[in-house]
Batch of 2 targets.
Target 1
Amino acid sequence: MSTADRIGVDAGGTLIKAAVHREEKWIYRSFPLSQIDACAEWLHLISSERSIHLTGGKAGKLKERLRGRTSVIFPEFAVSAEGARQLIAYERDVVPDAFLLTNVGTGTSLNYVHSGKIDWMGGSGVGGGTIIGLSGLLTGIYDFDTLIQYASRGRRTMIDLTVARIYEGEEPPIAGDLTASNFGAVSKDSSSSSPEDQIASVIGLVAETVTSLSILAAQRAGVNTVIFAGSTFSGNELLTEIVKRYCAEWGITAMIPRHGAYCGAIGAACS
């Protein structure tokens, strides 16, 4: 096995994401937080000499398991911004001078990145943890990949109340297919909905919440670009579609890098 040039690990509340730079390319791997010991063993194996750069809320826990190895913890917001810049530069060549970084992990954080500075703009407890937890309560399914598969077959029309249904028979003041109330069409007299529909509606709730917050934060910061990152976007086409559509409604450019789940890990590796 060739020696790693750089190793960065983002230990979050649900997943541990690792980015290893070797032979001029990045190698990505993730572990559930419950497998933190397996992650530590893997890190020992891939390089016995290189310093491991850590970030994230569970970085301290992982550092405890890396005894005998040189490891350093870096501030999460700063390294995530650097990782986002690198991913956008790789995919699009041009990186905006200033942007909002919305990181949708277990929860959601909003950061205004500009002139070498990072200003925290707030956040929300609504995020990937909401998708897993709320969908699990509704359907009994807690596996993220399975939830995404179910959502791809779901329809929100029986669960979410749209603007057009509020203004039935009249011209609505905004686009009629926008959501007026998440889960607002559900009542005791409603027809039963499928697990697919329920999960799709949960993802819709999360997508619209984090996007609305991002749009307001971007407007406040005076930028028109939002980079959305975080493992919640991995394979999640419905989330991606809604985020891009809602941003476009307000003239905001949404950038969602392919490996955005690893922003923190890449930024830590390069710090």
Note: The chain has a mean pLDDT of 93.
Target 2
Amino acid sequence: MSGSPSAPAVGPATDEAGYPSPFVAWTMVAVLFLAYILSFIDRMIIGLLVEPLKADLDLTDTQVSLLQGFAFAIFYTVMGLPLGRLIDRSARLPIVAAGVGLWSLMTAACGLAGQYWQLFVARMGVGVGEATLSPAAYSIISDTFPQKRLGLAMGVYGLGSAVGAGLAFLIGAFIIELVASTGSVVLPMVGEVRAWQATFLIVGLPGLLVAGLFLLLPEPMRQGAAGQPADQVQVPISSVLDFARRRAGAVMGLCFAVAMVNFAVFAAVSWFPVFLIRVHGFTLTQAGHLAGAALIVGGLIGLVGGGWVTDRFGGGTPAGRLAFCGYAGMVGTVFAVIFPLVGNPLVAAAAFVVFFASAAVPIGAAASALQQLTPNRMRATFSAIYLFIVNLIGLGAGPTATALVGDTFFPFDTGIRYAITVVSPISFAVAAGLFLMSAAYARRPMAV
């Protein structure tokens, strides 16, 4: 296995020589997991604040959906590409520390916004900061764990998305309930703020402490590049593009499959608290509690359970992981139809858990397959390409697709259930087909 720029390593080492001790490895995952939780709290908290934002700023569902998706995704996706190249050439932990600090400050800035355009710009800033985390995390974890344990490690890291999204709703519900009981919140140097503004400020600022933790961790050695400084082992972009061409069916198929899963997920999750309020008559606090619990339970099943299974299904190969994602997609498609249409809210929540668990499987499994399929010094770049496609399509368009379908075809309060039923199952079914196609290509030799 050569360490020269012209012949980068094609996969992780097959034995455990050179990997950090289990204690160091899992400490690294724990801090990344904590950062990922915070990133999803800051990203998803707005989903619980739809009704207060609409009331205070006089917004439509479509305008709110742009704050949920497009405003965040535009720089999150675009900045991910140059940041991925930087991460492949540089020490990764200081970059993550800077990103965590930036998105935390910008989340707090959302709480200072008094107009729609100010909130839109602040959400763009959150996206810039969060663009650093996952490309670096995927690269770090693949250099920290041997292949046979990679799926579980990626699944634990990915669990931060579900826990963070769930805590966003739970913490948001607690803060709003607290503000409602006290009447108002007065903060030093800020003055009196609304409940939704206080929520952004309270969830944003703790991330500054987590940013500091990354400066205390040891930078892991890049597997296959031992003894070579990071700035001396660089893969030209032409090599990246050539590899993408030769592995297009597997790698790019994987990217678009996960994009469609994300489309289905954000089309539903971004509106799940609103769905509970408008369709089942929940209060905002009740909706936050139930939605948050459902996300955490579904995430635990799909990410930890799915990560454990995909380390064993098909021998833990990329093709095996992708095929399992396809089968999970078939299950998710069915429950994407069931949960919005059933009449009982608890049955709807249980069906949502299955839907979200199915959608959570690829977060760890597909990310693991991507690391296995790509050379070491291209991993952060391909992770950035992966995140660009996944989030531009899924996060950027998913919430707005539901809002547009609802505003156009079902312009009444309970119409949100039918909008979700139209958007989520179709995109999930497309994802399942793309996963199975990608698995078939992953079994083939790489094209010349």
Note: The radius of gyration is 21 Å.
